[in-house]
Amino acid sequence: MISRRSVLVFASSLGVHLSGCGLLLYPERRGQTLGRLDWTVVALDTIGLCFFFVPGLIAFAVDFATGTIFLPEGGVATNPADEHPALVSLSIPPDQLSFKAIEKVVSDYTQQPIRLQDGKYEIHTLEDIEAFWSKHEELQRDQV
To answer: How far is 13 from 37, CA to CA, in rounded Å?
Structure first.
């Protein structure tokens, strides 16, 4: 008969090693295909592979299958500090404007899953797209 202690040790060790899986650490990376490897995720998966072969192997398989082992490409951080990235204006008819509609339009354009989370964004009205960077800089000054 399996002791209660054995089950507890097995469950906790499995939980610790599966937490090294990139899917649990970076769920927003799901769906990426190829790119540069995230060596942090590789190291965590390797530790799982060294100590517990099956969970480590599962972590590697899941991370490669879902794409969470790869670093995201591009982004604003790759642009020089004094250069603003190009902006694109996307329209939604006012009678259809909702958070879900915004998520869908931006997701369709960027080919990335987008999810607006309360407290992680602000809404401001702009006269035109050219006013974005001045409003952005104004908000940055207000936060300091």
So the answer is: 26
